[in-house]
Amino acid sequence: MMEKKLSHIDESGNATMVDVSQKEASVRTAIATGTVHFPAEVFKSLTDQDFVGKKGSIVQTAVIAGIQGVKKTAELIPLCHQINLSKINVEIEPNINQFKISCTVKCNEKTGVEMEALTGVSVAALTIYDMCKALSQDIIIGNIQLEQKTGGKNDFKR
């Protein structure tokens, strides 16, 4: 069995960006999800307002923010590669006292897009928090996780 090691740490223990120059480009996808949970009375209030607050449509603003977050991942996560993205889809669905967020990212590159998908979910969730914090700070962002990735050396499905 091959020993797993941290890919962003060199032999001397220093942070390093992975060299992908010898890898073949392939179509890669990643899907991440997360939730934003609200106290019941706050979510009822949001539902009664069709999820529109003083700052505008909560869902549409968070979708756009999630897309922007995906595009800025390499600026936010120090050792991520800048990659050309071919598709970003952010979906936000109301559920029982929460929003469920899903972000799908696709590219044809030498490295995958799981960090981009996770960043998209995170930024969308933070945007929902920002737009709703006037109603309550008892909002919980959670369960942000990779659901699947394809097209690299190792595919993954939760």
Summarize the structure.
The chain has 158 residues and is of the alpha+beta class.
Structural summary, described in words:
- By secondary structure, this protein is of the alpha+beta class.
- The protein has a domain at about 50-150: 2-Layer Sandwich (Alpha-Beta Plaits).
- The protein has helices at about 40-50, 60-70, 75, 115-130, and strands at about 25-35, 50-55, 55, 85-95, 100-110, 140-150, 155.
- A hairpin with a 5-residue loop joins β6 and β7.
- α2 runs antiparallel to α4.
- The longest helix has 19 residues, at about 115-130.
CATH architecture of the domain at 50-151: 2-Layer Sandwich
> What about the largest sheet?
5 strands, antiparallel
Integer-rounded radius of gyration: 18 Å
Distinct helical segment count: 4
Ranges where pLDDT stays below 50 over 5 or more residues in a row are none
The CATH superfamily of the domain at 50-151 appears as: Molybdopterin cofactor biosynthesis C (MoaC) domain
Question: Could you name the CATH topology of the domain at 50-151?
Answer: Alpha-Beta Plaits
Across the major sheet, the strand order is 4-5-1-6-7
